[in-house]
Each structure stands twice: as structure tokens, then as C-alpha cells.
Design a protein that fits this description.
With about 180 residues, the protein is of the alpha+beta class. About 25% of the residues lie in helices and about 35% in strands.
């Protein structure tokens, strides 16, 4: 899947993106805000992630800002099934130099459109560590509603961390017809 917004292009990652991906994501302040990112993060980690086969309904996209003549990688966003409940969770990250510009919300709106219209999903889950309130603010802007507080693992921290869980239920009265993406 691909998406283009006013300021962003969202596209799957390609093997040649590994150096650029490693440079954008390899920041301790990112790793400690994500559940499954190893720390320190290397180009080998990026190459491995980019070469991992994705399922037909997996959404794993890099976010490129195209406000300047040359697009630059500023983050990533995706949808993945959660275990063991089989729900679908949205996840995203931005490189520190892109924080505070509204990119996560803009990319999130594009992915919500994919989730609802292309994939026919009815509900999404969002989680963020309690010490990362900016991520919670993005989820609330995207109309996610709080459902509780719990704990989830953080690979970079090597332990479970307190987190908030939110969910978004798409309008149940709207017809669900998957479209080509």
C-alpha cells in the first residue's frame, strides 16, 4: 500500500532503505518509546526488518516528508495483529527532528483510511507508554478513546513499562467493502 498526503508519502520499505532507516530510527529517545525496537539499533537490524515477509493485510510503511526538494525519511507507521486477542494495533514513530510538526497525525489519518476502507477493519487498538504522552495526544487526535492502563514490554529498556490502551471503533453503520490498495 502507498499513500500521499499534503506533506507526506507513505510507502513500504525497500532493502536499499536500510542505511536511511537506521539513521532515522537509531535514537535512544525513540527506542525507549517503542515496544519492539532493540537498542542499540543497527543497519543490520534495519536490513532484517525490511527483508521480513509481510502478510497480505500487514501494513508497514515508511513516512517521507516531501516539503523540501528531496524527500526525507522522517518515520514509520503500520498496523499489526496483537497477541493473543487477534486485534489490530496501530504503531508509529518519528525521528526526533520531525517531532512537533503534526506528521504522526497526518500519517495516522492516511493509515486509518486504509484500515477502514481497504482492509475493512472495524476496530483498532493504540497503546503508548505513560512516559510518552505525546503519542497519546496523537491517538486522541485520531479519535481513539482510552480503555485502560496496563503494562507492555519494552525491548530497549529490557522490562515491562506502564502503558495506556486506547481503541477506535469505526462507525458500525457504514458499509464495509474492501477496496483495492
Amino acid at each position: 500500500m502507498f499513500a500521499r498526503t499534503k506533506r507526506l508519502t507513505l510507502r513500504p520499505g525497500w532493502p536499499e532503505d536500510a542505511p536511511m532507516l537506521a539513521q532515522a530510527i537509531a535514537h535512544e529517545e525513540i527506542a525507549f518509546k517503542l515496544s519492539r525496537l532493540p537498542w542499540p539499533y543497527t543497519e543490520a537490524h534495519a536490513a532484517e526488518w525490511l527483508s521480513t515477509p509481510k502478510g497480505a493485510t500487514d501494513v508497514a510503511l515508511l513516512i517521507f516528508a516531501h516539503e523540501q526538494p528531496t524527500p526525507r525519511l522522517v518515520g514509520g507507521i503500520g498496523l499489526h495483529e496483537t497477541e493473543p486477542d487477534g486485534g489490530v494495533e496501530i504503531g508509529y514513530w518519528l525521528t526526533p527532528s520531525a517531532w512537533g510538526r503534526g506528521y504522526a497525525t497526518e500519517a495516522g489519518r492516511a493509515v486509518l483510511g486504509m484500515a477502514q476502507h481497504a482492509l475493512g477493519l472495524r476496530r483498532l487498538i493504540g497503546r503508548h507508554f505513560l512516559d510518552n504522552p505525546a503519542s497519546g495526544k496523537v491517538l486522541r487526535k485520531l479519535a481513539f478513546r482510552p480503555t485502560g492502563v496496563g503494562r507492555m514490554p519494552c525491548l530497549a529498556r529490557g522490562r515491562e513499562v506502564a502503558c495506556a490502551t486506547l481503541e477506535l471503533d469505526f462507525d458500525a453503520g457504514e458499509p464495509r467493502m474492501p477496496i483495492a490498495a
